[in-house]
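Hey, can you fold this one?
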Amino acid sequence: MLTFLLIFIGFVCYYAYKYSKNQEQKQLEINISSLTNGDAVIPVDGINPVMDIRIKENNIDTSRIIEYTGEIPRKFEFRPENFGQFIGQEEAKERAKTIIKKSKMNLKSHFLVDGIRGHGKTTFVNLIHKQLGGKLIEYIGRQVNEDNIIDIINQINTAQEKYVMLFIDEFDTMNYKVIKILNPIIETFKLEGKKIKPFIFAGATINKYILLKNNPDTLDRIDFQVKFKKYNKEELMTILKQYHTQLYNDISVSENILNIIASNCKFNPRTSISLLEEYIVEENMEKVLRNNHIIKDGLTSIDIKILETLASVKRMGANALAMRVGLGEREYVVEFEPFLCEYGYINRVPNRMIADKGQQILKDLKDEK
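Sure. Predicted structure:
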């Protein structure tokens, strides 16, 4: 009798729990449906829902914008107009020459640019397009979905220009299932038997490993895999001098200041330019470094906290490490880890652990106090 009673109570508890989870699931479906206009798939995997949510893109009517017609007091941005002004990345520039030659011979010349953020990937793509001429169609990866990929094809097919380039920046953020649709498009210029005007596909990413994991078949169909290399101090000095000459030639900036900036920008061109502009405003390099929380050799207070955390443990996963230093996992992986790994401060094997160089800089900072 006791056994029967226990079994009965167990069944009651189980079905009560299932009913509760089903109610939560229905509420989740209602909430997501209201967010996505019903365009969401929510299969249930055991207890936890596995969500594949596609939030509808806003349709922005840019024709309603009242364009500014006033005076712009000074040029506020400099972008290279040709590959001569594009400093560094010599191997990539040689590949660009081949891409351009193949395109002019009407041969497939799809390419993917892979490199750390701020290294000029978008500029590189635009320079290739500029040398070819024609029409450039640009999207961010997460903007492309099953709803608008036909619109993109129609943009290509209705283009009057000889050369058409479809550039998808942050290619890794595009849904991996949608990327699969690209396979026949970029390989045969057809989709379900319908012809597509031959075009050049260009992609850019800072996370090629995601594409290698989810879409290696698509990468196999991209003719050129262009890998950007890290910049050195001399190249950054040249970039800074060129930027200063083009935009701020009337403002004096010493060689020493440029040297400090080149040494503290994590060898990132975009960061170096940001520091230069801030110095031009503040005219105080110590204040600029302090405002950007730069402690030593470009490492910020957060970088040092990451190293200190890893120094106190044997090894740690990305999510746990990010939480310990007050970051989100993606923020840590995108903003901080690439530099720390690339320049030998930490190792990823696959869990994170501090390297000898990381230990040494912590020692140096301790000795300097």
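The first strand starts at residue 40 and ends at 41. Let me know if you want another pass with a different chain boundary.
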